[in-house]
Amino acid sequence: MRRDWILIVAVVLVAASTVIASFTAQSGLGERAGWLASVALFNTVDLRLSWLLPLTVDAYGIAATRIATNKARYSAEVRGQAFHHALAAVAVSVVANAVFHLLEAHVIVLGGYAWVLVVAVSIVPPVALGGLAHVLSVAARDEVEAVAAEPVEDMPVIPRQVHEPVVPPQVTQVPDAGKPNADTLDEPPVVDVEVQPELVPGPDVDASYRPVAAATFLAEVVQGEPPTVRTIKDRMNVGTDRARRLQAYLGQLVEVTQ
Q1: Which residues have CB under 8 Å from 57's CB, separation 6+?
Q2: What is the pLDDT along the chain (258 residues), one digit of tens a residue?
Q3: Which residues have C-beta within 8 Å of that of residue 33, sequence separation ≥ 6?
Q4: Does pTM surpass 0.85?
């Protein structure tokens, strides 16, 4: 399939023009709001604080759009929330561009109301950070649930033992046991005891508990701190052995999500 280079060049030109125009307008609006200072990076490049406004808005929109368009990884609910955040970033960018050009064309004269612009521009970064943190936390919940639904390949597989009925000890008749003998008169009868194999939990013994454990301790898994054995016993009402196996399973979920 041949590439349409005319279409590719057109898209690149439109994208570059939009980025340059929007970045210039938003950084100019930041300067009008009082962001005039700069920070020296590596003693060679001066980073103007007014550049932080377009960088914040555009990065917020890109992150939200990426989550909103990833159908393979996130649910419809998460993608819907991310889509609203992406729209909010676009709306802020559009309004910032419009306000800057209105001020440049002297259509709007703030005068004594310049403080409104200062307040509006100053609240953009913290609001964007809060919105992005919300989207990422909701997206992380989908990722943890997806990992919990998959089989854990690193769990040790213990061979399943066949549960046979318990056989009582069998008494083996000693030859000539009924006949009196001076040498064996005081010796106890010989007893052959069949030793039952120790029953080891099979690999699926906790299969029904793992999804419940992942949902119950979702917050701990996201924070990277699996619960203690005592906490698992108290909240899930299980024994010590099962709580230890579930703690190992949750620890592996933490490693996968890091």
Answers
A1: 26, 89, 92, 93, 96, 124, 128
A2: 788 999 999 999 999 999 999 999 999 999 999 999 988 888 788 888 999 999 999 999 999 999 999 998 899 999 999 999 999 999 999 999 999 999 999 999 988 899 999 999 999 999 999 999 999 998 888 777 666 655 555 555 455 554 555 555 555 555 555 555 545 445 555 555 454 444 445 556 787 788 888 888 887 888 888 889 888 888 888 889 888 888 888 888 888 776
A3: 117, 118, 120, 121, 122
A4: no
